[in-house]
Amino acid sequence: MDLQTVSQINGFLAAFVLLTAFGMLAQKRIYSLIHLFAWQGFFLSVNTAIVAYVAGKHHLYISSVMTLSLKVIVLPYILHILVVKLKIRKEAETLVNIPATMLIGIALVIFSYYLTAPVTELSSLITRSTIAVALAVVMIGMLMMITRKHAVTQIIGFLAMENGLFFAATSATYGMPLVVELGVALDVLIAAFIFGIFFFHIHTTFDSLDVEQMTRLKEGD
Amino acid sequence: MMTPINIAATSVVLLLITGLSAGLLRRNQGLLIRVSFILSALASFMATASGIWTVKNGITEKIILPIGLPDLPFHLRLDALSGFFMTVIGLLSFFVSIYSIGYVKGFIGRRPVTRLVVFYCLFIAGMFMVTLADDALFFLVSWEIMAAASYFLVMFEDEKVENRRAAFLYMVVAHVGAIAILLSFGVMAGLSAGFESFSGFTFDAMRQAQFPVEWATVAFLLAFFGFAAKAGVIPLHVWLPEAHPVAPSNISALMSGVMLKTAIYGIVRVTFDLLRVFPWWWGAIVLTLGLVSAIMGVLYALMQHDLKKLLAYHSVENIGIILIGIGLAMIFTSFKMPMMAALALIAGLYHTLNHAMFKGLLFMGAGAVLHATHERNMEKMGGLIRRMPWTAVFFLVGCISISALPPFNGFVSEWLTFQAFLLSPSMPNQIMKLLMPMGAALLALTGALAAACFVKVFGVVFLGHSRGHHNQNIHEVDWSMRAGMMMASLTCLALGVLPTFFIEWTDVLSESLVGAKLSASAAAGGWLWLTPIAPERASYSGIIVFLGILAAYGIVYVVLHVNPGKIHRGAIWDCGFEKLTPRMQYNATSFAMPIRRIFGFLFLIKEDVQIKKAPHPAFPKRLHYFLRVRDRFWFWIYMPFTAAVFWIARKAGRFQQGRIQTYLIYSFLTLIVLLLVKSL
Where are the domains of chain A? Predict the structure, then answer.
């Protein structure tokens, strides 16, 4: 595989990752959100494997397999169980209407291209053009956390942000050291468990998973 | 190897072990008290011995302990300065530990004392560690151990609201001070080894560095603020009259007698040993605050009728007197007058030791009174000299010492401080020319007011008749409490009549810190005469004065008692009223009344007299008198400050929406703004 092709494939997969990010931003149904999240993980994993092959970094294969197992299988499964257990049937509600959110998302993508322009100039990696996409995915994940009211959608936003970070790491420097990545992966898994436990508690306390309810926790003046 | 630092370290370890294993004996409280206080007395004695030895021979020893943080081991160093303060702390802790055997027994049956024993040992160990520390990390660790242990000791009787309030206030002030000290060390460490390396955290590195004056000023001001908060310098004194009275009396003796001195140690260590370069106005600040503390402390003390609160305000006064000495030494050093600097510094350090002794003695005496009467309010005491003759004598020794009257120790150190004022050649600075005579006058006024205050204390508490409920159970305290007070009294006397030995002993101190020996001139007239600069200018012989006083006392005794028939007791002349009761005696409030009138503008006084209507105004049925004297500083500084903090907190509270999305937007916007700023 010559470098030109690899660069093409990399860009192609980056586009898919960004597309799924926008998809999540627009999607109201929780089941579909989880599916989109799994797809994002899948593209990420494939992309990592290709980078590993081209750069000859063997530890990236491990990262790739971990991404596949964690983000495509385990985490969506946990989320799925959560949704079933908590009997979430209500559609995810948004604070800002969806078209406006999409427009903000587009602005963020342009902003990240503007930000990463100097980095792209300096870098010599074949994956350099996708740094901007990675940053955009992080920001869109955060935007999703801001605009959604439902606790489960917030955790999906959080995990999407993590995806973006991972993507940035692979595209900017061919991945972090293995130890760091193992640690991060473990953290994400544990975070998912902790969130799950919290959701049960929030659910029993407030009888709802709408984070708006938590304003009641605020101390009065 | 028997070297001073090993003995000192052993004593610290012994204290820590005693404190941490006190829980094993908690089932048998009587045994616990005896064992642990005897062990802490032993440890204090060892520390005192090592301190005296170090100063005597001018030894400097170091140990590096392999504990602490990675790459930041604990450095220990025992030099003349730390040896001196170790002697001060050890000596009083020794007396107080013996005293505590009897005093703490009074708690048995009322509450478990295990907590008191544990924190007592940790507290003393913390103070020793502060003097031993030779790096910023170990210093602050020890400082915090000391502060935390004393917090729990103040909280000992925690069912009372005032104790919890006092302990909280103490903790807040102690931590504000600790932050300032931490920042000061940060500045010094950063300047001595650069901000990339941690090696500057040792005091050795700071000693070798040359600090630019402006940064040295920052470090000094921070350190002085921090230590002043601990020492109770006005206006940072508010915690002191709250915390000292509510702690058990043996703890008050230690807190007032020696814990405040660790702050003096810190000031001397930082200015004379670590920074070394100072402009004259640093000394002027220290001197001015010392003068303010001395005069305000004694005036507030005069207004108190709670015995321990009164003593606490006197600690503010005496810290002021010590700071006058330190401040003068700093001024003289910056004007290159080493001889005068040595005089002022030794006067300040002498007063440090003396104040530890007599204030410890007075708090022990107050504790004995409290132990016997369960009463802190002086207006309900009286006539205790007949029930507690020993305590009365020891307390009188403390009163004379603190009033700076010969032949006891308080006189010598205050006299030396005076000499530093009076003998100083004219200053090359206009402000100093003004400050010196004013300072001398204020110091004289302080001494006179302190004497007035202790006439009041002794007269109201021990003389006359009991003003409160007539309690038949008041009895003299047991042997251990008397032994502790007696040893402190004898030390007060010894330091008063033999000052030349002290001067010679501390020579190495003044030589290492300001570069001049005092003994060359001060002890020039032999051990009998103390002559600070030259015999023809000023001299004092403690022994001759003491013998003179003894002779005068003997003559009076002989004249009065050789023929007992000459003295006969009669009834008090009551102007024909015939209904005198003990409550009609001259009391603490009436004694302080003239001074309250003169200096009334300094206090917040609320005075109210209510006369119950009677058939004729000349014959009132009942008269109600209400008087409350409060500290103005509380309303000048602390109330506005807390109000400002709450105002800011309320304003900042508006950012707290309680909605996760809002918080996320805060971080999101911060992120975007930071990225933008970075990319521009």
Answer: 3-217
